[in-house]
């Protein structure tokens, strides 16, 4: 895994020497180093209190003004949320982070923190269906203009810029067709024109790609996916500079998109194994893609690790640690294939669990898109999205081959 610097807290009286830790180590430790009473509890307790008491008005004023980061009211954040924010800022390599009640809350707060009526956004047409709906339907109601482009075509992106363009928004690996925008090139284009680059990194996770290292200004995730990893916690996160996080936090607090203490706590438990899980997800997904692409009943496989992927060389450069566990496949008679997998691999409209699941983008994640737009993008009724888990690869391949041969 990629090495990431973190200061050494065990050098009192001297400047802390930087220590190079593997991401697997950081995922297990990050965020909790500032927690009080470490000797009392190895795992942080869940702080379910909705409000906190203060000794006097001065203490309360320091908390309310932000001078003292103490918790005072649940909507403004809990100790569990603060721990998760520290951890995710460390893993994504940004100065700060903001956790939210959902991935969409995080994206909304990130964008609304820097946009106003009259501004313009450029976005990839291949973004997640609810993100598409947010940008296509809700933002115009707020007076924010949006242009949808093929973000893998830099000329098309460049032609879409206007004097009032403030943000370019893409996904590091698009959902569900796994295209790979050139994040460093997009960052240069945006910055040359005074705009910000926003990257949804949900499909990758910081274990395999860190957009901020390549120039991204706003990095978002649905934490219910790879960051927590077990389909048991819900939330979102924005990782960015302290200044951009502060703008987003103001919007989030006013809109009420708070993450629960329990979901923040559960995400921290899953985060500790992120590095280990992503190695298994990535290796298994590559193996499944290599088998499916040669099966006569599979019409197409979408995975960046296949040599015929349109951005194969770029993907190999940007994702040296692997591509995560996602792939999609256009399968002959998809409904029959899904029935053949019943009892082995669940049909579930989400992703990134430790077990392998299937999803149907046509009727779930991209249902908000008009049918002609879905077909134009290559999202057909026979396209299935596969979230490959960490199971034994022999067992997984046996399940898929048996279903295809049924």
Topology, element by element:
Blueprint: E1 3-7, E2 18-22, H1 23-29, H2 57-65, H3 79-92, E3 96-100, H4 103-112, E4 120-124, H5 129-141, E5 145-149, H6 154-160, E6 165-171, H7 183-192, E7 196-200, E8 218-222, E9 236-240, H8 242-255, H9 261-271, H10 274-292, E10 298-302, H11 312-318, E11 326-331, H12 334-340, E12 357-359, H13 371-377, E13 383-387, H14 393-405
Parallel strand pairs: 4-5, 4-6, 6-7, 7-8
Antiparallel strand pairs: 1-2, 3-9, 8-9, 10-11, 11-13, 12-13
Helix pairs in contact: 3-9, 4-8, 10-14
Strand order of the largest sheet: 3-9-8-7-6-4-5
Shape: globular
Task: Let me know the largest β-sheet.
Answer: 7 strands, mixed
Class computed from helices, strands and strand pairing: alpha/beta
Number of strands: 13
What is the count of DSSP helices, taking H or I runs of 4+ residues? 14
Give the C-alpha Rg.
Answer: 22 Å
**Distance between the terminal alpha carbons, to the nearest Å?**
39 Å
Strand content range: 15-25%
User: Roughly what percent helix?
Assistant: 25-40%
Seen as an oligomer or otherwise, the chain set is single chain
Average pLDDT, all residues: 93
Helices and strands, in order, run as EEHHHEHEHEHEHEEEHHHEHEHEHEH
The residue ranges in which pLDDT falls below 50 over 5 or more consecutive positions are 7-12
Protein name: Cystathionine beta-lyase
Family: Belongs to the trans-sulfuration enzymes family.
Keywords: Pyridoxal phosphate
Cofactor: pyridoxal 5'-phosphate
């Amino acid at each position: 895994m990629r090495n990431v610097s973190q200061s050494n807290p065990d050098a009192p009286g001297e400047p802390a020497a930087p220590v190079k830790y593997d991401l697997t180590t950081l995922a297990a430790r990050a965020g909790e180093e500032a927690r009080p009473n470490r000797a009392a509890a190895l795992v942080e307790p869940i702080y379910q209190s909705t409000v906190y008491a203060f000794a006097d008005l001065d203490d309360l004023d320091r908390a309310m003004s932000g001078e003292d980061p103490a918790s005072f009211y649940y909507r403004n954040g809990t100790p569990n949320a603060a721990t998760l924010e520290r951890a995710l800022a460390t893993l994504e390599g940004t100065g700060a982070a903001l956790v939210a009640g959902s991935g969409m809350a995080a994206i909304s707060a990130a964008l609304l923190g820097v946009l106003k009526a009259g501004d313009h956004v450029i976005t990839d047409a291949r973004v997640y269906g609810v993100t598409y709906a947010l940008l296509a339907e809700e933002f115009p109601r707020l007076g924010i203009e949006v242009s949808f482009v093929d973000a893998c075509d830099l000329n098309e992106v460049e032609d879409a810029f206007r004097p009032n363009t403030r943000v370019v928004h893409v996904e590091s690996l698009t959902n569900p067709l796994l295209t790979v925008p050139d994040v460093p090139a997009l960052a240069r284009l945006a910055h040359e024109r005074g705009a910000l680059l926003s990257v949804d990194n949900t499909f990758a996770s910081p274990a395999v790609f860190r957009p901020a290292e390549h120039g991204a200004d706003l990095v978002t995730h649905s934490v219910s996916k790879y960051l927590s990893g077990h389909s048991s916690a819900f939330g979102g996160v924005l990782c960015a500079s302290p200044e951009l996080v502060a703008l987003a936090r103001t919007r989030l607090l006013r809109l009420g998109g708070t993450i629960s203490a329990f979901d923040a706590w559960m995400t921290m438990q899953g985060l500790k194994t992120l590095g280990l899980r992503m190695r298994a997800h990535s290796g298994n997904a590559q193996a499944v893609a290599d088998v499916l692409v040669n099966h006569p009943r599979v019409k197409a496989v979408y995975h960046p690790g296949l040599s015929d992927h349109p951005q194969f060389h770029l993907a190999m450069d940007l994702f040296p640690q692997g591509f995560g566990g996602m792939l999609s496949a256009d399968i002959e008679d998809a409904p029959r294939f899904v029935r053949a997998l019943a009892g082995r691999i669940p049909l579930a409209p989400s992703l990134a669990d430790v077990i392998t699941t299937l999803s149907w983008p046509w009727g779930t994640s991209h249902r908000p898109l008009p049918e002609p737009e879905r077909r134009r993008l290559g999202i057909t009724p026979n396209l299935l999205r596969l979230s490959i888990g960490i199971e034994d690869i022999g067992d997984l391949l046996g399940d898929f081959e048996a279903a295809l041969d049924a």
